[in-house]
Amino acid sequence: MEQKSKLYVTLLTGRTIEQGVAKERGKASSEYAESVSVCYMDPEDMKQLGIKEKTNVQVSTEYGSVVVKALKSLRAPHPGIIYIPYGPWANVVVNPETHGIGMPSFKGIPAEIEPTPNVPVLNLEGLLKKQFRKG
Amino acid sequence: MQVVKAVTCPVCGSLCDDIELTIDSGKIVKVKNGCAMCESKFLGYCGEHRILKPLIRRNGELVKASMKEAIGKAAEILAEANYPILYGWSSTSCEATRVGLELAEEIGGVIDNTAVVCHGPSLLSVQEVGIPSCTLGQIRHRADLVIYWGSDPWSAHPRHIERYTAFSEGRFEKSEWRGYLTKLKALIGRKKIESTLRRLFLKKRPSVSAAPEGKVCPTISRAGRKLIVIDVRRTKSAEMADYFIQVEPNKDYELLQAFRSLIRDQELDVDKVAGVPVEHLEEVADAMVGCSFGALFFGVGLTMSRGKLKNIDAALSLVRDLNMRTKFIIMPMRGHFNVTGANTVSTWQSGYPYAVDFSLGYPRYNPGETSVMDVLLRRESDAALVVASDPVANFPRKAVEHLVENPLIVIDPHMNATAQMADVVFPSAFVGIEAEGTAYRMDHVPLPLKKVVEPPRGVFSDEEILRRILSEVRKIKKAKTTEEA
Ligand code: SF4
Description:
The complex is a heterodimer of chains A (135) and B (485). Chain A is 28% helix and 30% strand. Chain A is of the alpha/beta class and 135 residues long. In chain B, a hairpin with a 6-residue loop joins strand 15 and strand 16. Chain B has 19 helices and 21 strands. In chain B, 55% of the residues are buried. Chain B is an alpha/beta fold. Helix content of chain B is 40%, strand content 18%. Classes of the chains: A alpha/beta (135), B alpha/beta (485). Residues 9, 11-12, 14-16, 34-35, 37-38, 157-159 of chain B line the site of iron/sulfur cluster.
């Protein structure tokens, strides 16, 4: 299979049970940060990008870009779809447009994904500082 | 050691009220009946991330302050603001929300709850189309067809299937646990046979393989309670279902309308809708029409994807159509344990369920204009009070940018991303653990939340903190008017 340096995908965000459990433990906990700074991918897509599980990847949309850890999706196959659990990392790249009803578009966002093995995933403080220069 | 029975779980909208807690010297040491999220909350509530003292930002740093000082500072911020927002409310009691509405009216602010970013579109559609509903108990006892659309209860409402739908033991409908277990065993058995075959024949695929992906599942036509899942991903819940339909992202609307045509006996002259072969849709449509009591649960998979409220319009209309032929109900899967309560209290007090603007002195409601997200994106607010919620972690970046630029007050038991960016932080007691109150389950049944342990010293409930802020705001305003006069 031909390896690509970038893939065009559809980004979904949503809940995972890991995130649900970790958020009740405390949102400042490292478990919480770890449960939401990841991106679930189809194994075939990972192959196309030539990456292994836990490689850092950069996800970019029209609204921003963020580095997260790629994980193999347990719910594959869903080629071309990536999944980031709700949280501060996903927020950097979701579509704020509410179409006049107050609800931003959290699902089905066109995105680009590329391996960035040498760029670290920021922790919560680092991420907030970088995005909002506060915190 | 003391055991408290029939505790309501303050985590998700299922509001399971059969939790048993064991308490030893003022601490919860054991949780029975709860799911993983419930255990995590009851055992972890008093962990290291707890805030114990009010905090105020001084020279860019959050430092400890006295309660009095923090109340004064918060009241000053709110009394001076021209267009403040009061946001959150879904993880606190109805009683606290009531005080919040009073405060919003007093300061002429916009009060909104987290429904705006989960089921806001559903509420809008319900106002237009109406909703046939019932209680979860009725579903447990009577429903013979359960559909989850765009929701993954296994991850977001872990006990929903077991307590209220397919796996619950109802008076007129049997639990499908056993059926599921048999299916699972058969599946594991088949996988074992396959892998043995593969090993024996040097990785060659066995000639008789499993049914191809998405192939018609024979259980759809069997008798008894059935579970159908429709989603963009094969979720864990989808694996439990008798029938799973994988819809292409952003195409739910087409699929819903296709079902509407099918149950009205119209023919579709295409082979596929939203990536699903029409034969499969026909089978599911048959199952829908053929059931005697169907329940359609829908999640944020519908409200957040393209179409948003129009998706819900279509889903509600589908259920309306189905009611011409059989009995069907529809219910949104509400996320936070009291988001339904926040909507209900807001409706009693102001006439509207969320996104209520008091800036003209009377309540105005126009989601898209008076919703927190739009106020933030238009950069109009000049202060914010956040209660029991974490918008910095849940709002798109552009909205958060404006939120943190202005004075921000946070009331929360735990440190979170929003509290880290705040100017005043109040620690609060966990309602349902350290404070009592009322919460509404997703089917609008109100349930009492219990107080089972004492909160840490000097930590009050959300309601109490809000009351104190409100009375301080009133004092400031009174002083101002006498000054002017
Ligand atoms: S399903 Fe929801 S309400 Fe029930 S125990 Fe789990 S988190 Fe609590």
